[in-house]
Specification:
Length: 177
């Protein structure tokens, strides 16, 4: 009889704890908490979807005559891979994976070497890939004060009047999210 009395308080305590803990799981600490969790789950499902990609060439345009770009590379938007080329003016054929359709917030890392007095001087900046309707060659535009913009264009080079950033531009266009 004494053993049964010892077990009863313990069982009651365990039952109360189980009910208390399970009640907390559906409790919203602030209004909309469960909705936020649902949105995060939906966003995670979206990330798992396949994004159609296209291999494009990559090149750069230097808008400053003061600084020489020795080499450069750009991180692909949905991969850890960095792709790049030599100095501005060259072209790397078909090496960069770009979504066929522009996606918002395609922030990429751009890394370039601008030697000073013969010594490497690596610069790294983050920028968004500018909106595009038709993917084409990926142009990396370098401006003074280490400003950089990345834009795909189906038009033949920055000398084309239809190119999103004209060759004679001295300041970069505003950053796009």
């Amino acid at each position: 009889m004494k053993n049964k009395l010892n077990i009863l308080p313990r069982a009651a305590f365990v039952a109360i704890m189980v009910f208390t803990i399970s009640a907390c799981s559906s409790y919203e600490r602030f209004p909309g908490q469960n909705k936020i969790a649902d949105n995060k789950a939906r966003a995670a499902d979206e990330l798992d979807k396949e994004i159609p990609m296209l291999g494009v060439s990559i090149t750069c345009v230097q808008h400053s005559e003061k600084e020489y770009i020795h080499s450069f590379s750009v991180k692909e938007p949905f991969s850890p891979r960095m792709v790049g080329g030599g100095n501005c003016g060259g072209l790397v054929a078909g090496g960069y994976d770009l979504p066929r359709k522009w996606q918002p917030n395609m922030k990429v890392k751009v890394r370039w070497n601008r030697p000073i007095k013969g010594k490497d001087n690596w610069v790294e900046k983050y920028t968004n890939i500018m909106p595009y309707e038709k993917p084409g060659v990926l142009y990396v535009h370098f401006f003074e004060n280490d400003q950089v913009r990345v834009v795909p264009s189906a038009y033949a080079g920055a000398l084309s009047p239809n190119h999103p950033i004209l060759y004679d531009a001295t300041t970069p266009p505003p950053e796009v999210e």
